[in-house]
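Run log, item B.
One chain of 369 residues. Sequence copied directly from the ordering sheet:
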Amino acid sequence: MRVLWITDRYPPAKGGMAVSCARQVRGLRRRGIGVDVLVMGALGVFEAVVEERDGGADLLVPPETEPAMGSNEAWVMVQGRGRYDHVVGFGASVGGFHAVTFAAWLGVGSTVLVRGNDFDRDWFWPQRSGMVREAFARASAIGAVTMEKVERIRALYPGTRVEWTPNSVDVSRWELLASDRARREEIRGLLRVDDGARVIGLFGELKAKKRIPFWLEAVRDAGLLDRVRLLVVGTLDGPTAAVLDDPAIAPRSLRIPFCAPDELAGLYAAADFVAIPSMFEGMPNVLLEAMACGVVPIVSDAGAMREVITDGANGFVFANASRVAAGEATARALGVSDLGAMSGRVRGFVETAFSMERELDVLCGLMGA
């Protein structure tokens, strides 16, 4: 089988969705499926480029210099690559729109993969909503990373096949090396946790939808500031940075603005808990990666997080809109007496329930592979 995979979220250095995109492409190529990845608006290139890979090629289209320039360049590249059996759009807006368009012109089926912002945000965003609607209307099948998104899309397009396509994590990738253990101890020493405080990690692109100020207010209102140390790894928006600088609302913290992917295991492992208090979500890679390192989640019930976490068993979940509930969930987490046992359950659960092979099986089913 030969697949054309279209996205604007690649390579994985871009983080977030790009990590999932690269993981799925590599997995399909390992299974012997030929995958050409067409990247719309690829950074760092100034003309259309084809980079041959084992199991396919990366077709890189530069950012547009005028409207529709990139789309037409992409179509010319695709026509020159021979026949495809299926087209996948990774992301419901740019990737999905181009996927269903090119699939129709190629006379093959198409699958649109919905991740998070591409539906929660782009459906309501005038500049992109038309692309999302066209993608959903024309797709042969739609995959979404959360069941609540599956149900909402089915309600809008009742005649379309819509399936749950969860993310995965390779637990072996997150086994701690000696250097990771040393990094963990270094971080915990810098945070001075010898007074019994717990380290809560905040990872990734900490923008408005992540609601870090909301959660920190909940921690303060619950009287937990003295029991918490924060490890903040990633980028911050302005309001989040301002709150973290305010000692009246934020506990002692250590901030690391950037780290290479191979350094993440030691940083995850330095945390006792990971907090993801988002307003809306897909299925965050941070959640699964941290769990693979045995880190216990404290999360809102947004997106797939309520599907992944069973409150009190493999993490702690609070009602999205309730600051009181966020504080209570954090307090319950801090009160766990045998954190080591819960950490083991967390890692074992994610290894079993969110394996890479399961993710690839679902994708292959949608594509008819």
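Observations after the first pass:
- Residues 2-168+355-367 form a domain with the Rossmann fold fold (CATH 3.40.50.2000).
- The chain is about 40% helix and 20% strand.
Flagged for discussion on Thursday.
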